[in-house]
Amino acid sequence: MTNVAIVYYSATGNIHKLAVAAAEAAEKAGAEVRLRRVAEITDEPLAPNYKEWTQANNEHAAAAGEVQVAAIDDLDWADAVVWGTPGRYGLLAGPLKHFIDQTFELHARRGLMNKAMSAFTSTGTPHGGQESTILSLSNVFYHWGAVIVPPGVTDDILLTPSNGNPYGVSATSGLQAIPGHLAQNVTDDNLAAVGYQTVRTMQVAEALKQGLKKG
């Protein structure tokens, strides 16, 4: 059985929705799955004067509280890791970077080498740094000697209007028309696409395990 870890940081719930869909797809495909959220690194509100964002953040924290917090052991255990992060100025979010910074000992003993890795994201606008956010995670994977598995354009689900990013599935939250609410615009096509991306990553991990055994 292939071990798949879905490791994500979500502030307002969009990435959480994608992560849950990724975990469900991997389980359905026969993987052993760990769904893990990355903890906040500060109790201070990120946008204290942006009431809609703060409300969405509080609601998400309450809803996702039962998801186990990620640990370095989850990465050591996994054959494949699928990462989720909102875009922050074209980069991965700070809490996820903080978690990654704790992998030094595992990396030093080459514990992340040859693991299959993939990433997905969500931003407020279609051109809000989706591709560069995923590429910023890829920079980390290069250092680990991991095998990057992009979705590419390998299935029709990746050609739907709400998808189309060959680097990794990306959703667009946008701006909500209802005053006092933040958008939660993860589409069914986004959920299907991240499921496809996750299973593809799992399949590559399986092939790597078999090939390395024979080698």
UniProtKB/TrEMBL annotation:
Q: Matching Pfam families, A to Z?
A: FMN_red
Q: State the species of origin.
A: Streptomyces pimonensis
Q: Could you tell me what this protein is called?
A: NAD(P)H-dependent oxidoreductase
Q: Could you tell me the superkingdom of the organism this chain comes from?
A: Bacteria
Domain Flavodoxin-like, residue spans: 4-177
